[in-house]
Specification:
Elements: H1 8-22, H2 29-36, H3 50-73, H4 78-92, H5 99-109, H6 113-133, H7 140-160, H8 170-179
GO molecular function: DNA binding
Organism: Secundilactobacillus paracollinoides
DNA-binding region: 28-47
């Protein structure tokens, strides 16, 4: 890549791609520099160190997830929007960064301001939709947590289970959870 065309965002997008292919833990500073076509010492113009890169990868991934969900949900409202959020969330996590890497990255870099900002955006998107269907507004925060934990728990089972997870039950179970609200 030509000098002057490279940005932090381009480097992080490339890092997301590499992490999706090789895993977040296998992402290296030198490998990323090679992938963007610069010397490792030149990377310091854009990223501080490998921890900065990995935190940036997690923030970028969650940002892409939130943007994707936002655009996919535009035609929907209410309960239908939340069902679609759950389905699209699961679908999005089936490509790119593995779910295990995402969870590890959020745990490891959750205090990173960029990661925290993107996690807040994901939470806010969900909460806004939950607010619209919650009968007791004092329960919005608890309902939002229940909804997101249900989706993440399902993803965890899909990833860690030795038995195949019955995908046919996911949408009806999302509806059952939403009916509790």
């Amino acid at each position: 890549m030509k000098k002057g065309q490279l940005t932090r965002e381009i480097i992080l997008d490339q890092a997301v791609t590499l992490a999706g292919e090789k895993g977040l833990n296998n992402l290296t500073y030198n490998g990323l520099a090679r992938a963007v076509g610069i010397q490792p010492q030149s990377m310091y113009r854009y990223v501080t160190n490998i921890a900065d890169v990995k935190g940036g990868v997690v923030a970028t991934y969650v940002s892409h997830l939130v943007t994707y969900l936002y655009h996919e949900l535009l035609p929907y409202s209410g309960k239908d929007a939340l069902i679609q959020l759950a389905l699209k969330f699961v679908s999005f996590t089936q490509s790119g960064l593995s779910f295990n890497d995402m969870v590890w990255g959020i745990s490891a870099f959750g205090d990173d301001p960029q990661v925290a900002e993107q996690m807040t955006a994901l939470h806010d998107l969900s909460e806004k939709l939950i607010t619209g269907i919650t009968t007791d507004q004092d329960q919005v925060k608890a309902n939002t947590a229940l909804f997101l934990e249900f989706i993440i728990g399902h993803l965890g089972l899909m990833t860690a289970s030795s038995r195949p997870v019955d995908q046919g039950l996911f949408e009806p179970n999302v509806e059952r959870v939403l009916d509790l609200m």
